[in-house]
Each structure stands twice: as structure tokens, then as C-alpha cells.
Amino acid sequence: MKNLLYSLLLGTAVALSSCESKLDEKHNNPDGFTSAEIEYLFSKGALKTIEIDYGDTWNYNFRLLGTYLQTTARQAGKDRVNLYQNIQDDKGRWENYYVTRMSTLTEIDKIYATLSPDEQAKYQNYVEAGKILKAYNTAIATDYFGNMPYTEAFTARNVVYGGSVILRPKYDTQKDIYYAILDDLKSAAAYFKTATGDDTFKRQDIIYSGNCDGWYKFANSLRLRYAMRISNVDPEKARQVLSELSPDQLITTNADNTYIKVSGIDTAPDGLWRAMRESHSKSHSYYMYAPELTVNMLKEANDPRLQVFYQPATNDDGDVYEDSKEIIGYPSSADKAIALVNGPDGTRLFEIYGCLNTVTFRKNYQLPVGIGMTAAEVYFCLAEAAQRGLFSGNAEEFYNKGVSLSIQNYYEYYKNSDADKGKDMNIANRDVSDGTLGSWLATSTFKFNPSKALEQIATQKWLHLGFLQIYENWAEYRRTDFPILDEDRENGALLNKENAPVRFLYPAKEASMNTENYNAQSEYNKIDARLWWDVK
After folding, report:
1. pLDDT tens figures, 356-376
2. 320 φ, ψ to 5°?
3. Rounded to an integer, what distance in angstroms lies between the CA atom of residue 19 and that of residue 308?
4. Cα(178)–Cα(189) distance, rounded to whole angstroms?
5. DSSP 206
6. What is the CATH number of the domain that holds 499?
7. What Gene3D superfamilies does its record include (predicted)?
């Protein structure tokens, strides 16, 4: 039974036994599917890969990593130490990877292998796009855990399709995993460079609507991201990957951003928006305050993003209180939060401190359901690579372009929002053209400074990724140690920075279901054990 359960966790929803097959023959469900179609599996796999779902937003964006990374701020300060100590297991991320994210995509590969050459040609778009999505999922997962089963995983369904079934897969090193996904992305990019999408692919592709050039740029942009992810520990591999890329092969405009979008409230899944509604209300406490670090940083720079990131204090419906005029950041220190909660205004802090902007986020059903890659991140990666001599180009120009694209990106969210009220047309119509932003940046505290360029680039990437791409933000913070976060102290004890966890732990079930391979990883299975690429 344990073996069966373990196989389920490594990429399958069902592993049919002979007894089950006989029962199925005698008791067919007239409403059930008897076979799976690649195109429909692909749409589901793409959604599960890119979407920002309710559980993730509720549990991680606001309550765990968002507070840790100070992309949001939580009202409560008492027992804040638990926020850091609670990263004592996999937080459901193991099954999220092997089952939720990967099982559908790996099923496509198994079906594809049974097809004739002519049929395979019909479905190659799906398989190559699936390579990109699997690489994306795998990078997120290995950035949680480091070494993990990969090359020997996903075999449970071979009982149906043929081939060996490995119930206790070996753990691949993170280096080997990164090399493998970089190879897959290179292969997929080479395919999409000349590929065309048929009508069926256009209908089923919920990310790029069958635009193969979009997939080409997405694959190459991920190659850039992951080359920079490993660049501190393996600069030569990073340099080799970067040498094969040029800006014209990458996502360089917001029109090319990797999104899943819906047409409005009628078609929007409830997850992201439900999490935002519940995360700033009297009944669920307050987790979406504007963090003091970001607010002060943006105010000092006179950054246009301040008004679209945040708004003054609001009620549960997202309406700004009549007497609330200024965006005031909430402190990230537990001790300061405790003092506020216990102070004279402790019952009305939500009437004082700013929170995430309702028009941009909470009631904007034009906000992407999921974000895979954006042009601003591409330019920040290029800026760092150029500054470190890993890529030819002008680091300052890349940096300036990244900042401009980030501002324009968030203003697009605000301007295109379908929020039923609260939109300020002075903000929506603000001039955020390249020329205007260039003039602002030249006199801003964010002006490029070669002596602290790497800190500036990392800080801007942190600002841009924010809470919507929290896993990438956590990975980049661990890699760069920027920005310099405010100290989070409870009873004087420093909770974050040096004491903060740098990985999730393997799930406890691995110890009993894959004992030998699990035990071989024991030296790495600690929340303070740095990943391969996390070099300090």
C-alpha cells in the first residue's frame, strides 16, 4: 500500500491494478472518460503551472513568504517566531509538484509515445510547450528542496503504457536538474523558432493562443532566468547559456509577457481574488498592509508605482476611508506591530495604515490569473549579467529599461482594471512613457549607481516580482540577499535575515516510502542548509 501511495505522489492520479481493471470492465461509468486527449490535458497542465491559486495566495503570499520577504505586512506581531519555525516540512509543495503540476504534463508524454509518426507530428506543439512548462515547474520545486527525484520519477503510469515502474526513485542533484531543464528549454526554443500553430493549438493554448513566437521567447527568457539563478555557483555554465541568447529572442515588451488571463469576473476563477478579499478583513485579520520598507523606498524615490501598488487605509470592501489621505506603511517588525496592536489605536489600525490597491489588485478581474515571465524581469536579468561581465551590453540601459517596463506593467493593470469603483483617472492617465520615466529616473534615488548596481538591480527585481510571483522572489532573495530587509524582531530576538529558513524540508512520508534515497539526503534536509546555487 505504501508503494502504491508513493507512486501516486510521484506523478500519477491513478495506478491501475489488475483487480481494478476487472472491476472497471464490469462497472463502466457511462459519464466517465475512457481516454485522455492531449489537447485537453495540455490546457489543464498549463493552468496548473502558471495560475496563482487560492491556497498558494492565502498560505504563502500573505501569511508566510509575503511577510518574510516584506512584500506585504501583517497586522499581528505576537508569536511571529512561528512564521519562521513553521517551515519545518514541505508545506504541501512536494505533492503540488509531482501531482498537481506535473502529472497532467507527463501524461501527455506517455500518450505521445504511443502515437504513430504522423500523429506525433500533429501533437508536437503540445509536447514542446509541455517541455517549457515542466522546466518551469521543476525549477520552482528544486528551488524549494534542492536535490529531489527527477529522472526516475513519473514512472507509475508505466503500468498502463508499458516500461519500468520505479517506486523508489533516486534523488538527482540540483545541478543535474538545472542542466536538464536548461537543455529542455533550449530544445523547445529551437523547435518553436520555426514552428507554426494550427487552429486546435490556438484554441487549447491558454497562454499564447497558439503564437509559437511567444513560446519561443518564453523558453529563451526562462533560459536567461535560470542561467542567472546558477550564475554564482556555476558562472561558466551561465556564460555559455547567455552566449546563445540575444535580446531579440527574449520577452522585451509587456505585450509579450507570459500570462494567463480571463475576460472578467464572470470567467475568473475565485482563487486569487478570494484570497485577497479574505486577507484584509475583520473576520480574517489583516495581511495585506502596505509594508513600511516598500512605502518609504517608493516615497523617497518619488516612484510612480506607489499609487498603483497601494492606497490609503480602506474598509473591508476596499473603499478608502473618507479621512484617510496618505499611504502609511505598516512596520514589518513584530515588536512594533505588537506595540501598535496594544496601543491606543489597536482596534482601528486598518483605518490608519495603507494596503494593496483595490483597483490594481483586489477587484481587478483583468489582473492575470497567473504570471510566468515579464519583460521587466528579463531586463533586470540582462542588467545583472552585463554588470558582472556575463553578457555583452550596457547594464545601466538594461536597468533603466527594466524599471520603466515595471512601472508601465503595473499601470496597465490599473488602467485596464474593471473594478466597479475607486479608479482615479488622474492615475490611470498618468504619463508613464519611456521619455517621462527616463527623466524621472535620472534624478531619482533609484538612479543607476555602478558602485551599488547589483543591489539596485536585485531590489528593483524584488519590487517588480512582488507578491504575485512570490516563489521567484524568494529564490532571488536567497540568491542575492537583497534588498536589505527591515529587521523583524520579537521580544528583541532577530527573526529574519541570518536566522530565516532557506529551503523547505522533504515530506516525512519520504522517510518511510523511499528510505534509502531519503537517508542519503539527510545532511541537506535542514531549513538552514543552502541549496546548490545559494552561494554566500
Report:
1. 999 999 999 999 999 999 999
2. -70, 135
3. 58
4. 16
5. T
6. 1.25.40.390
7. 1.25.40.390
Where are the extended beta strands (E) located within 41-135? none
Neighbours of 446 (CB within 10 A): 22
Q: Which of 18, 284, 321 is nearest to 159 (CA)?
A: 18
Compute the distance between CA of residue 168 and CA of residue 164 in angstroms, rounded to an integer: 12
Is residue 219 within 8 A of residue 189, CB to CB? The reply is yes
Beta carbons within 10 angstroms of residue 131's beta carbon: 24
Q: For residues 265 and 418, is the Cβ–Cβ distance under 8 A?
A: yes
Structural domain includes residue 531: no
Q: Is residue 354 part of a domain?
A: no
pLDDT (0 to 100) of residue 36: 64
Range of the domain at 126: 2-15+41-269+365-519
Report the percent of the chain where pLDDT is more than 70.
93
pLDDT digits (tens, 9 = 90+) for 214-270: 999 999 999 999 999 999 999 999 999 999 999 999 999 999 999 999 877 777 777
Number of separate domains in the chain: 1
Residues 60 and 39: their CA atoms lie apart, in Å, by 31
Whole-model pTM over 0.90: yes
Which letter, b or e, does each residue of 228-266 get, where b requires 16 or more Cβ atoms within 10 Å of its Cβ? bbbbebbeebbbebbeebebebbbbebebbbbbbeeeee
Residue 400 CA: distances (Å) to CA of 65, 253, 435: 28, 14, 11
